[in-house]
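Two proteins follow. First one:
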Amino acid sequence: MISSSFTAGGVGVGLRTHDSPPVTYIKPLLTPPILDHRCNNNKKSKFRSSTRRSVKAPQTQAFLLVPHPFSQSEHTAAASSSSVLGMTNCSLNTTTNHLRHVESMAVLPSGAGKIPRLNAVILGEALASEEDDLVFPSDDFARQALLPSAQKYLEMYKRSVEDPAGFWSDIASQFLWKSKWGDTVCSENFDIRNGNVYVQWFKGGITNICYNCLDRNVDSGNGDKIAFHWEGNERGFHDSLTYTQLLSQVCQVANYLRDIGVKKGDAVVIYLPMLMELPIAMLACARIGAVHSVVFAGFSADSLAQRIMDCKPKVVLTCNAVKRGSKVIHLKDIVDAALSESAKNGISVDACLTYENRSAMMRETTKWQDGRDIWWQDVVPTYSTICEVEWVDAEDPLFLLYTSGSTGKPKGVLHTTGGYMVYTATTFKYAFDYKPSDIYWCTADCGWITGHSYVTYGPLLNGATVVIYEGAPNYPDPGRCWDIVDKFKVTIFYTAPTLVRSLMRDGDAYVTRYSRKSLRVLGSVGEPINPSAWRWFFNVVGDSRCPISDTWWQTETGGFMIAPLPGAWPQKPGSATFPFFGVQPVIVDEKGVEIEGECSGYLCVKSSWPGTFRTLYGDHERYETTYFKPFPGYYFSGDGCSRDKDGYYWLTGRVDDVINVSGHRIGTAEVESALVSHPQCAEAAVVGVEHEVKGQGIYAFVTLVDGIPYSEELRRNLITTVRNQIGPFAAPDRIHWAPGLPKTRSGKIMRRILRKIASRQLDELGDTSTLADPGVVDQLIALADC
């Protein structure tokens, strides 16, 4: 087996605060930039402005940021008068592949696609319109940011890829380790041709992530700081826990688990809604070295049974019911059915700890199995609030998280402790420009990776105050999110593009009736955000003053991979921008050859990062085949990606969401973005269907803005919009009117169901139990021939 090893070394501290002149002006260089355009098959910019005028692209110049005592207005004027806006010439005279985007950042961005003029949008001073393709942070924001300039990012990024051992060791040293790792910080083999694929970070280091989340904060004097604000589904139901109180409750659950025989390495399945007891249970497992497997409390009994049979837990933690919106969901009934099914297949679970959620259902009406079922409130409070920590190796497993997929056995993604801890903490800190005074709210459920990394572990490792919301984001009306923002003075708001588009559809009035003045950073997660939704999120929700951290990452990566760092560089609406520290993204063609410059292809990553997953539970062969065999030597993300001439990365969706129309490979996200740019289109989802002439045709489900009637003229206008923005080859063959789209309760569109409806395979719709509104499927079927 061949592997590469990094040895600790190097100088400097990865999280060092850099001093820099606070104000810069932009000075033209004498020579134009030299950009690599070897890949010239992407003639049209996939994410250009939706303006339909034919214009000449602005001439590119190069600029260098130079310290100068300009005022903000002079800075803005200097920027706006140029056709390009600059970042830095960081004196990185390197041509190594992993620093390719660093070289591109030495040249000022020239904009995203053909636009009539290029304006600098300074946060808080101007709206982001269809013609404003670069959004800059204000000087005030940048001065106070953890990374106040592109130059500071470049310094840290360059070290993170040239000295990963030293870079990550310096950051890891800020956490509590019972004993440190050895000289070898990272050992890995990403090339399946050289033997088994494996990754190890901080091997031999002994730590505990629960201790670092809770005890470390209490010991540092933050015990009285609020850890969780909880908001119930119904207005008026709320609660809070300080770090000291949270630690006490975690210890009680941990002691209960130990008492019933759960030990280090044992699996615990958690099937809970967004109560504070969900992250409490996760932290309790981590405290005693147990491996938690959180299952989204929207999965069916069959899906839950599959996961139980795979990981064979000692205990299942659930609650009797939850009220989401106006609907009561009987979770305990689902667990009972799942445990019955798993028992038939030889996997019995002896204990089911059940939390009584009185706001949804009283215990008297809950079905019960004596000898197995235990009420949480009856036993957990009786245990001690002190629980000894189980110290674990950095490479010991922390959690399993199953990816559902549309067919086949779910994949149990396995994350380990040390590297995940260091990576989630660091990504949270920088991607959200986290400050100790921030109030942070991520709308994700802990049943998904976002809830693991950026509701629980990442924020608590930074000592943050986190808002947890039990209910639906549009209940009792579409203004609920902003009501919660104002109630808790939320400063960082992280959500999914699907929710953004849904709230767009409901109109601005539900947003503008609330203050939202506390907000300073917004975030997007889950799928590429189309530019029009980005602009609405920025202009309306953020009042044109909050940068948007549009993050690309996956369950498998553990944390952010490509994301804007607020304050560091200008954003382009819809672009994830540049890689995080230590991440080396590459775009390859079908043969696995890296493509330089402006291009489109398959997004891969070379070399490991601390947060990467280590295997698929019980199926390492599938792990290698799925992620490392398609392009040997790389981690294959499964996503398509474009890189523009400025080095910005644009995610185009899953490659299995690419439609091949008469030889043209068209990303569904690209067509969806074009459709949603139409002012009467609120949301769109595109799938491919068989076509007797073209091989595949484009089938678009379109949700209109409220009050807009269906019409053939509008159907033609939508098709024309796509033709104008992308090309005739991308015009949808069919527009299917959709009052709503089939989404999970977390907001994920179930494209599998859309494909079956589009191809009229109505007897193969499969499991729809996780949908927020199963009735939407019948509505779509009824409109199939309209």
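Second one, unrelated to the first:
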Amino acid sequence: MAACSPNRAPDRVEVGQLTEAERENDPWAALGPVVKRDPVIKLLSPVSGLEPLTWSEDHRISASSTSGISLMEVVCDVHGNKQDLVLHRTSIPVPDQVCELKVGPAEELLRAKDKFSSSSDPAMSQSFMLDRVLNPTVGVHKGILYTSWSPLGCDANGRCLLASLTLDHRLTIHSSTKRLQWTVVADLTQLYGESLEIRGYSVPGGQPSKANLLDLAELQRRYRMQTPVRMEWSSVCTTQHVQTNNECKDVGTVLLAVLMENGDLVVWQFCLPILGKDSVLSCNTIQSGVLSPSVLAWWEYEHSGRKMSGLIVGSKLGPVKILPVNLKAVKGYFTLRQPVVLWQESDQIPVHNIKCISLFHPKQNCNCSLVVAARGSYLFWCLLLISKAGLNVHNSHVTGLHSTPIVSMTASRQGSSIYTCSMDGTVKKLTPIFTDMAVAFKQEEIVLPEGLAGRRIHGIAVSPHGAYLALVSTEGMTNGQHPVSRPYQVQFVTLKTPNDAAAELLESPVQSLFKQTDLLDLVRWRVLRDKRIPALLQEELDDKVHNTGSPYLWRLKLFLVRVLYQSLQKAPVEARWRPTHEDSKVFVKDEEGGVVGEGGGGEEEVVSKLQDPEARALEEQTGEVIAWIEAVEAHLTREHMKRVLGEVYLHTWITENTSIPTRGVCDFLTSDPTYEDRAAQVLIGHIQKKMNKQTFPEYCSLCKEVLPFTDRKQAVCSNGHMWLRCVLSYQACQTLAYRRCLLQDSIARLPVPEDPDWIKRILQGPCTFCDSPLL
């Protein structure tokens, strides 16, 4: 078969050339943007806490329940042809041991509890006995109160961390450094309790309290100052530190703000990646002065190249205000000079949730910040804009949005849309529309498809790029009767069409397929269903690849062709893991060359398949798609090899034996006569001159024979020992431990202490074929 050019599709591959009549009868246009997707995820326990559903930037969904956290990861599978969403499920159980806050010496605490429980004053005894925090013997609720995902790049693999708060007020940070395995990175409740004990449970900057635990007010104060209510992560802040050799090193930090029951704000600062309690750089306590705090959110604003931030605190009584966060140790960090009150009236309407969205104001031609808060059945909004006159604040309420209180609110990270859900199961979409100085909202009701309409919804979460909406729900009332049982389910609906997702992927500034998994899955769904790549998408993608040569667009092309290949495959009749019970067929040839025995039927089947024109056309089409895949993979491999050789040239001054097989990579690039890249030829010439005829070959660790570089995927010595090659450095992985791509595309070796920093940076990159992290 002739070689296939990677810049265009093979002539025989059907790419969906649609006529005008076919476009009018396009089934995707009839579906609309809101379509229910399978599968339906059943939860084993009832949901619990506030906002039980959250969606991370790396496309993992957490559902809070009474038994723990159920986690679902959306994966764009390129090795299967099922049209359903591919979800990898894990869970984090609730600890069996009840969290006990440290408030003082154990003996003194025991005497105080005996005193208050047996007090003759009913006001004192009942206030103590009915408080589940002060008196856990009453019975502690078990479950998850709230979860919060960190931004990307916070763990060792560059992914998100999960902060969880249980109903017994235990605040922990979880990491998934190993595939589908969660571990506790830090117990912040314990760490903060120890710091309070050291400073004598005093207020920030004050003297230790002279009161003891036998005073009920003092006992309540010590408990409330370390009882978390909410917590939220900030965005990653990168600063440059000058090392001893005068080189500048980028150091990333992230902040976790924790709102306490007494109104204190505890701001934890971590260095990245967060590996344990040793990653804590500082812990600052800020007094907010907010009575009965209920909700917390970060306010982040960019003006004139400076990033400002603060903390938005809402109260159960109604007020909302922004507090400055003074962190002198963080370079390039700016905050407000004084608190800014967004809503002052104590109207007894509690603030349930707060979202802050950064937007561009087309009328004022500058950046602005939109703060929205769910207050009962109303939506409070506040537009903040910095001008020459100072900080301008415009606020109001959206009334008539829901007839019942809002139970959940979410907003997409890469868009301006806001989604709200009320107790009666109504979901609304609000899109801000700017006026001269204020903002108005376009309201749309999301018509839920069959299977979701009429159900009682407890929480919603939107994907990072607004492609999917996840809903956790139970069965509603039927003919005025409550159901016998209430199974809790997580279901997914689309918010965009595959055409809209494809257009966003082509014009996206993110340049990463993994970060846009939700959009990518919509395109995957259409290719699998239609068994062809949309014609407009393919034409525009080919033009952009030809004009720009962007590696991101090449990886998008590879993804589409791989999905197209899977759509041409027939689904297996039985599960692949299930063993077959058929007897192995034996073919026995007689002296005349005939075939006797049970094997004759197989040959007849092959002959009949070759005579079938449809089967023959499908086989030819599949072969051409395979050639197309190999051509695109070869192009991506050569481009990455050029980048690796560039790093080798920049960081080696003399003839040096690095762990990268430099000579083998150079020979591999020059061995292909069809590869004509002038830049690569010049780079290889400079490297060969610097190497001074040294080859530095790799050797097999088993037999010490030379490992030739003849294949980009594996290395085989003369004795037949085969080793897989690292997709990032192209070194043969001769250890038992290595990392694998999330989509199982390739492997990469683990960094070792003797590796220089530039090699460690190469090994930190994503997969060169699909942008997925290597775990």
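SUMMARY FIELD: Residues 155 and 273 are 5 Å apart (CA to CA). The chain has 15 helices and 37 strands.
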